[in-house]
Design brief:
The chain has 391 residues and is mostly beta strands. Helix content is 12%, strand content 58%. The chain has helices spanning 3-10, 18-36, 57-61, 68-77, 338-342, and strands at residues 82-87, 91-100, 103-112, 118-126, 131-145, 151-166, 171-185, 193-214, 217-231, 239-253, 256-271, 276-278, 292-294, 296-309, 313-316, 319-336, 348-361, 364-376, 384-390. A 16-stranded antiparallel beta barrel has the order 1-2-3-4-5-6-7-8-9-10-11-14-16-17-18-19. It has a two-stranded antiparallel ribbon with strand order 12-13. Strand 6 (151-166) and strand 7 (171-185) form a beta hairpin. The longest helix is centred in the first third of the chain and has 19 residues, at 18-36. It starts with a helix and ends with a strand. The model is unreliable at 1-19 and 25-64 (pLDDT under 50).
Amino acid sequence: MPRHHRDRATRNSSTCTRTKRLFLLIAALLFCCAGIFAQENDASPAAEQPEPETPSVLSLLQGRKLPVDVRVKRVILRYETDVSFLFPEGEFNATFEKSIGSYTSITSAHYNYLRGEMGFTFQNIFTRFHLVPELTLFDQLKFVPLFNKDNIWRREQGVRLGGRFLFPLPANSMTSVNYTRYSYPSAENASELDAQKVFSVSQSFAGEIDSLQLFGFLHSGLFEMEVARAFAVAGSNLNFWQYRLLSTGKSVRPRFSVQGKFEWITLLGGDNAPARFLGGRNRLSAFDVNQFSGVNLLYADVLSRITLTTLQRHIAGEIDLYSINWLVHAEVGQAGDDKAMRNYRRYHASAGIGISTVTMFKKQRAFELNFMVYKGLEPFTRIRYYFGITL
């Protein structure tokens, strides 16, 4: 990648602007709303009712102590085994978790047949104590349009070593040391590679609510804010401060659920920060994959599900059609420098509608089929179709 492209991608002011301070205030307010009202939906019937066999955070607040592994799995990381296929993208995603005593391993894999993208993440957690060590390794290959119409691949490899402390209340804090290497074809010599190395230390604080009954909905949500400091050491010239805010949540009723997500990443100071990307399924679904890029990023979405009918109709053998659901998905986001982030009229929006069906096998969820149609609010965008299978 030419150096002037990198400079243009990473140039930002060395101090936090008034706009960023305003964003911090808005983001904090959004957390208060997202923790209660922002939402996530789960197509399985089990998601429509609280899980009585698993202690909730309300139980913790009432004096019952949650086991460390339950808090890490159910409340903090919210991981679960999941396999999904997405067409016409030819995309495959899978997440598997395995626990042996206090040790848990979570492996995630991604592959896109049409684009040639692939990657994996390998996370290891030890939950014996309230200070939970975590080790994460990842290797991702993606194709991105960087500041021109040519698709350029970028490989991201890294390791994250940290410790998460669980406070008595439903909150936690994590300190970690991170190393990430970004490599891509050299603009001067196609047979060689250019690379960026990021050495950083990050500190995060997170809180959550779970199984909160309010206005007839069962609410749960997760909030996390993180500050990262990158240092120019060991051959790296990246020296910056970065702030990240993430808030997700869900509200569920037997026939209606809404999920939401808010993510904001901004450069607080320094320069040469790696670019972030937006575009593609569930990242502005009406646009090309990784179509927008910049050192700052803001993304928010709301997905509503209405259960039209719970048929429980027999199909064959022990297979039953459980439900048919109507989906409505709205997204908005932007990635770029400070100037682009302040121009709210240039933000990108995507809207989609669709339908999904849930199939049961031996009274347990077997798979979900969903079909979505998306259109961007900008005139040049075309209609996009997605067909997915989640096991």
